[in-house]
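Weekly structure sync, notes
Attendees: PL (lead), two postdocs, one rotation student
Agenda item 3: pending single-chain targets
PL asked that the sequence for the first pending target be pasted directly into the notes so everyone works from the same version. It is reproduced below exactly as submitted, 327 residues in total.
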Amino acid sequence: MKVAQIKNNQIILNEMPDVTLDGRRGAIVEVLGCGLCGSDIIKLVKKTSSDGTVLGHEIVARIVEINSDTDFKVGDTILSSHHVPCGKCVFCASGNESMCKHFKETNIEPGGFSEKVFLSEEHLQNMAYKKPEHLSDDEAAFYEPLGCCVRAIRRANLEQGASVLVIGLGSIGIIMAQALKAMGFDVTGLDLRQDRVDLLKTYGIEAVVNPSTLQPFNYSTIFMTSGADAAIETALKTVRDGGKIIVFSSTPRDMGYANNEIYHRELTVLGSYSPAVVDLKTSLDLLASGQVDVKNLSTIYDFEDINQAFSDTIENKILKAYIKIRD
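Predicted structure, written out during the meeting:
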């Protein structure tokens, strides 16, 4: 089967033996396509993955072989997240499923940028759903990233009608803002690109391009979906005293938030990383109902053009790349 692997800090297309069940519980699926996540970009750019690694996890796939006690069958088109929490450890019990050791150790095999992958029985039982027929494959690929957003919102524990600011309107910021609106919160978006501000407005959400136009210390919660260092200063200037900053992105300089501001203003700085099982169900409901609209957010690339997808994403030419692997 064909896979896209890291080699010498580049993505190359290569052949490797097909994944097989070999008596294992789970399923072999043909990958129809896979979204390109910011974490894939970081792993390539920061050189944190070894040669031979197959990136990608935002998969839409068709079952071709299955050995499972679930209701899935050969021919089903499904969605699945890639990590599975154990549900029993101290992290799972405290709502930190992303920190669960089992969560970190489980994954799809070998990775989403592959013609086939193996999904374990745990994946099928906990993380997978059938794709709603009315969603296109590139729309359905938002299942996992939207699940991440849902978890961030849940962890924020917002009061009803809270006034929130989403800083950074890439694809994640766009779907985060829509999810917040769908859940009844008062949302404003901020980005330095006018085209992205204008896009968010088409979803009926207020957005601005100039941070100086925002009322200082006005928002109960800031969702940091920008990877820019300067966004940290903006967050501190716009969050109200006693408010929350939800960190949902990494920054180049790996800067921190000002200790004295956190102390004197009684701010809460909270990280959120990956979805829990319950968040994926909510994500699918939001997508299927159209409350989060992802039509035309993705630029579709053929598998052979995966390097162009990485390049265009790194150069900020597109909102989101979806790699089409087969029909």
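Discussion points:
- The longest helix spans residues 143-156.
- The chain has a mean pLDDT of 97.
Action: rotation student to compare against the earlier draft before next sync.
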